[in-house]
Design brief:
With 259 residues, the chain is of the alpha/beta class. Among the domains are: 59 residues, no CATH class; 84 residues, no CATH class. The protein is 47% helix and 9% strand. Strands 1, 2, 3, 4 and 5 form a 5-stranded mixed beta sheet that branches. It starts with 10 loop residues before the first helix and ends with a strand.
Length: 259
């Protein structure tokens, strides 16, 4: 309500999160104080505790939703393999639970933020691009014969094919080649040629942001494909670089927030 004494806390969102399927809110709000103290006020103590509760609900909405519907705080994100925008099968159940929650709590809106790991995602994208480079000639050859390859990952190069591909790619590469003192091109091993080719695969921030955006878009598409949540309740946020975490098992991640 419009009042100088009104709270600035996002009460409507807290109410939406706390209501059960019957539209009821059941809270256990413990209070402590000395009733003999003339300065003790039940209402002040109650609203102070209630305010703290609302802040906990707002800052950890998926903990509340997980307690109601199952799934826990892990509902707040989806992990991807580094360099990949394909939703892993093991994460689908988590998104299905999120769809169930959004279907039952129609007043809630979902924000989806794709993130990227500058180093790990960058290395994975660079390796994939290099793999595609080596397989490109064979893919074109198979396509010309009427056997198109849908993805480089499904194509295998024999050892001799891979060696030939490396040599051909190195020959065509535009980066400066190592030279002898007399200016002639230096003869280096195939392993060194591969290292130079891989190092010069251009993966920049634009590629990383596109990866993060596509991850978020794929999740949005999956949610909408269920036909239970309207598009006006799903919002895509700008992609961000992932915060460094001591959790070495953490992979590429899309983060959810509730509004």
């Amino acid at each position: 309500m419009e009042s100088k004494d009104a709270t600035s806390l996002p009460v409507p969102l807290a109410i939406s999160l706390l209501k059960n399927a019957d539209g009821q809110i059941d809270l256990n709000v413990p209070l402590s104080g000395d009733l003999n103290d003339p300065e003790f006020s039940f209402s002040v103590a109650f609203f102070e505790v209630l305010g703290n509760l609302i802040m906990k609900v707002i800052t950890s909405p998926f903990k509340v939703l997980g307690a109601m519907f199952g799934g826990g705080e892990d509902l707040g994100f989806v992990n991807f393999e580094y360099g990949s925008d394909v939703i892993p099968d093991k994460e689908i159940q988590k998104i299905d639970k999120l769809i169930e929650i959004l279907e039952k709590k129609k007043e809630l809106k979902l924000e989806i933020e794709g993130t990227y790991d500058k180093i790990a995602d960058g290395d994975a994208l660079r390796n994939k691009a290099y793999d595609t480079l080596l397989k490109s000639k064979k893919m074109k050859s198979l396509a010309a014969k009427g056997t198109p390859v849908l993805s480089p990952e499904t194509l295998t190069l024999l050892p001799e094919e891979r060696q030939a591909a490396v040599l051909a790619a190195y020959e065509l590469a535009a980066f400066p080649k190592p030279r002898e003192e007399d200016g002639k091109e230096k003869q280096i091993s195939i392993e060194e040629k591969e290292k130079l080719l891989l190092t010069h695969v251009d993966i920049n921030e634009r590629h990383l942001k596109e990866l993060a955006i596509t991850r978020a878009e794929n999740i949005k598409h999956y949610i909408l494909s269920a036909g239970k949540v309207v598009a006006t309740r799903i919002f895509l946020l700008n992609p961000e670089e992932a915060e460094q975490s001591p959790d070495k098992e953490q992979s590429g991640r899309v983060i959810f927030s509730i509004k």
